[in-house]
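Take a look at my tokenised protein here and describe the backbone shape.
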Amino acid sequence: MILTDITNRTIDVINKKATREKFFSFISHEIKNPLNMILATMQLIERKVDQNIYPEDILKHLDLIKRNSFRIMKIVNDLSSQTKIELGYRDFNPTNQDIVCFIEDICESVRDFVDINDTSIVFDTDAEEIIVGFDCEKIEKVVINLISNSLKFRKKEGAVVLVSLTHDDKFIYIKVKDNGIGISKENMDRIFKIYERVNDDRSIIKEGTGIGLSLVRDFAKLHHGSISVKSEVGVGSEFVVKIANTLADENKIKIHYKITKEERLQNIAVAFSDL
């Protein structure tokens, strides 16, 4: 007679089942809501066209359709990135760039979106130029995601987001600090878990996919780094992403990342679509 301990295998099956249930619940809720909003808005437009309502009113509805379309695009993009990571597809293309200029450009690009949400943004750095190997597309997503996160949990008045860059011989540190409502100790244990949404009752924004911070963590790991957070309820939060301060092998660089101003603004609009 051969006895086999299947305890670990059983636990693994249970965990995978729980993850699948969270995934299907996520899909049902997150994609269905903006789709329903789009369909309802289109019906309103059809009625207004039939009644010859003036175009300005229709434009408001079209803006609502665009924002919800961006929300769906954000969900699909995040799911695609997460699926690639889970399947072991290492989509990582670091190039040697000035990360100071790169992150400052992102901060300037989001400024109008931040202003609309009654918040100010400040960029600070400990060096005028730092050439380092990093995946531009992924670091852009990291920074935009963290700024978006600060806006979700901002205070109603006097909200400030400070993006800073420091470095030492081993690492580059990207910090995003806010004076928002903060994160409770209970929620801090959950924020980097996939499909976990921390919708604090005190937060202004109640939406969120539960994928963003998980992706930020995974993108930091691709750069041989990590992410950490310090937060105090009622005071604010500080996220610190560190990436290796090394140069990329020029012989292994596949594609040099290029993005137009219009493309970046659309990426930001997608990322901020749930604000």
Notes: The beta strands are 95-98, 119-125, 131-134, 159-167, 171-178, 226-232, 236-244. The CA atoms of residues 182 and 193 lie 18 Å apart. The mean pLDDT is 83.
